[in-house]
């Protein structure tokens, strides 16, 4: 009887861990194997050269080169841009990207891209503001802030900005390269 009780306890604990793991973004997704046209145009626009994984960190001017993107929230198009940070350029390799969103702490809507983004050479932390598109590195999720976020954190990287006041009710987002 004790052995059965012990097994039941182990199964319950395992189930609880699985439920928690499912709520965070998966880090087991395979990395993208090729760059999309969006990443190529972003790399060319910011440096004039194709991007490689062994390239040096962008200079100050390259880091701030923005990329216009096409964002659709709940079927409605809105204006948006990605900044020139390495993590934003890595996000561009995943475009087009469609995500389901859920609310997080009454401040942001979050969704999980298919893999974690490269956060090497990240800029200095900055507090997220309403409208910011950010990446929370520990969980591997994108965050769309509809209210100003907490104080600056090295775990939260601002990737760009979305020009809308409709983020609070966003259920689905599609991000594409602007043509």
Question: What does this protein structure show overall?
Answer:
With 179 residues, the chain is of the alpha+beta class. 25% of the residues lie in helices and 27% in strands. The chain contains 4 helices and 9 strands; from the N terminus they run H-H-H-E-E-H-E-E-E-E-E-E-E. The protein has helices at 2-23, 37-47, 60-63, 86-92, and strands spanning 67-73, 76-82, 97-100, 102-104, 108-111, 132-136, 141-145, 156-163, 172-177. The protein has a 9-stranded antiparallel beta sheet with strand order 3-9-1-2-8-6-7-5-4. Helix 2 packs antiparallel against helix 4 (86-92). Mean pLDDT is 75; it is low at 5-23 and 27-63.
Q: What percent of residues are in strands? A: 25-35%
Which segments are poorly predicted (pLDDT under 50) over 5 or more consecutive residues?
5-23, 27-63
Number of strands: 9
Rounded mean pLDDT score: 75
Radius of gyration: 18 Å
SSE topology string? HHHEEHEEEEEEE
Secondary structural class = alpha+beta
- State the helical fraction: 10-25%
Distance between the termini: 67 Å
Shape: globular
The main sheet comes to:
9 strands, antiparallel
Number of helices: 4
Spatial strand sequence of the major β-sheet: 3-9-1-2-8-6-7-5-4
């Amino acid at each position: 009887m004790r052995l059965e009780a012990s097994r039941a306890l182990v199964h319950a604990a395992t189930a609880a861990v699985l439920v928690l793991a499912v709520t965070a973004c998966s880090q087991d997704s395979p990395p993208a194997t090729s760059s999309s046209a969006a990443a190529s145009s972003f790399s060319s626009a910011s440096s004039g050269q194709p991007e490689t994984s062994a390239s040096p960190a962008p200079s100050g001017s390259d880091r701030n080169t923005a990329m216009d993107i096409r964002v659709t929230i709940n079927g409605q198009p809105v204006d948006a841009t990605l900044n020139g940070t390495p993590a934003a350029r890595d996000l561009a390799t995943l475009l087009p990207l469609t995500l389901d969103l859920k609310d997080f702490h009454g401040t942001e809507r979050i969704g999980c891209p298919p893999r974690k983004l490269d956060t090497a050479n990240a800029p200095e932390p900055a507090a997220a503001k309403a409208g910011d598109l950010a990446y929370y590195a520990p969980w591997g999720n994108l965050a769309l802030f509809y209210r100003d976020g907490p104080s600056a954190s090295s775990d939260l990287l601002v990737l760009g900005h979305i020009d809308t006041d409709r983020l609070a009710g966003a259920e689905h987002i599609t991000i594409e390269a602007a043509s």
